[in-house]
């Protein structure tokens, strides 16, 4: 892997370039779901411990992003969506990204272990390993099921937040994991539908490349339907309640309706209108997850007043 440094391109990296290296948009999802997992967990921890735990979980998520960008620099240069990232644009060298990713990985896991408990610290270390090694280095370029299996990495944060408080795993944390795990394929495949030939050019065997867009549309519908039972199971759990149940009913009805609309779409028609339905489905998928976890927060905030929960 060649090192494209900032000097090679005559550009200097600014603070924002290093922030982009940490994938802040992905980090925001990691932080939010981990925070929810921490807040809804039974018992609670001191606010300072909670703050530091979320901070180190965020740094761990950022470390994963930096290591992902380091390893994927070759394909990022080929893909239109990623060509402007710090490494392909020549603002940050691959060696810098690797060093930053490794340093933040070690720091975040060590400090989370010291601040909270070692189970949570080791869980964060496993999550980083899973995303970087299992998904990025192995599955992503090997199988069209890459995002299905690799999606587990993005589903671990609420379990880590839960572990910060409880020091372990429970059915509730597993249900939060399952919701994100089953949500990830339709969310990401919707993106692939309107990414044109980016993954094909990069040689990445995404489902749209190996099986075509028609098959991808069917897979989106299947996973969207399979996702719903996990949403209702979470609503029925000890951290769920009426608010979460209403959210599950409304959000899953809308999500399935969107998937049905997508599977009925002819590719030529979709391309002609700029993949409007696919883009709308992708945007709604983000709202779907945030609103589900937001409902859990509302449920937890109402319980001290005798509302929320079952």
TrEMBL record:
InterPro entries the UniProt entry points to: Protohaem_IX_farnesylTrfase, UbiA_prenyltransferase, UbiA_prenylTrfase_CS, UbiA_sf
From the Swiss-Prot or TrEMBL record, state where the protein is found: Cell membrane
The pathway entry for this protein reads as: Porphyrin-containing compound metabolism; heme O biosynthesis; heme O from protoheme: step 1/1
The first-level EC class reads transferase
Classify the main location: membrane
State the Pfam families in the record.
Answer: UbiA (PF01040)
Keyword Cell cycle found: no
Q: Does the keyword Isomerase apply?
A: no
Instruction: Give the molecular function GO annotations.
Output: protoheme IX farnesyltransferase activity
The residues that cross the membrane are 26-45, 51-71, 92-113, 119-139, 146-165, 171-194, 220-237, 243-260, 281-302
How does this chain sit within the bilayer? Multi-pass membrane protein
Q: State how it assembles.
A: Interacts with CtaA.
**General function of this protein:** Converts heme B (protoheme IX) to heme O by substitution of the vinyl group on carbon 2 of heme B porphyrin ring with a hydroxyethyl farnesyl side group.
| Other remarks in the entry | Carbon 2 of the heme B porphyrin ring is defined according to the Fischer nomenclature.
The family classification in the record reads:
Belongs to the UbiA prenyltransferase family. Protoheme IX farnesyltransferase subfamily.
The name under which this protein is listed is Protoheme IX farnesyltransferase
């Amino acid at each position: 892997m060649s090192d494209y440094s900032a000097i090679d391109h005559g550009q200097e990296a600014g603070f924002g370039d290093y922030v982009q290296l940490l994938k802040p948009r992905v980090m925001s999802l990691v932080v939010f779901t981990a925070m929810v997992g921490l807040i809804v967990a039974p018992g609670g921890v001191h606010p300072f411990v909670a703050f530091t735990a979320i901070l180190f979980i965020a740094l761990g998520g950022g470390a994963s992003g930096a290591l992902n960008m380091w390893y994927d620099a070759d394909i990022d240069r080929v893909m239109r969506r990623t060509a402007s990232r710090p490494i392909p644009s020549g603002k940050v060298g691959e060696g810098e990204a690797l060093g930053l990713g490794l340093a933040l990985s070690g720091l975040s896991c060590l400090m989370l272990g010291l601040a909270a408990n070692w189970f949570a610290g080791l869980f964060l270390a496993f999550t980083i390993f899973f995303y970087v090694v299992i998904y990025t280095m192995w599955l992503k370029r090997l199988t069209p099921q890459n995002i299905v299996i690799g999606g587990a990495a993005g589903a671990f944060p609420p379990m880590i937040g839960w572990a910060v408080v409880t020091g372990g795993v429970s059915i509730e944390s597993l249900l939060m994991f399952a919701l994100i795990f089953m949500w990830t394929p339709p969310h990401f495949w919707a993106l692939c539908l309107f990414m044109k030939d980016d993954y094909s050019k990069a040689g990445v065997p995404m489902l749209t490349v190996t099986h075509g867009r028609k098959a991808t549309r069917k897979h989106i519908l299947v996973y969207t339907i399979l996702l719903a039972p996990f949403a209702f199971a979470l609503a029925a759990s000890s951290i769920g309640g009426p608010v979460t149940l209403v959210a599950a009913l409304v959000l899953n009805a809308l999500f399935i309706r969107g998937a049905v609309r997508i599977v009925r779409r002819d590719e030529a028609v979709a391309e002609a209108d700029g993949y409007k339905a696919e883009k709308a489905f992708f945007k709604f998928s983000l709202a779907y997850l945030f609103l589900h976890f937001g409902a859990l927060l509302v449920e937890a905030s109402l319980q001290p007043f005798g509302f929320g929960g079952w």
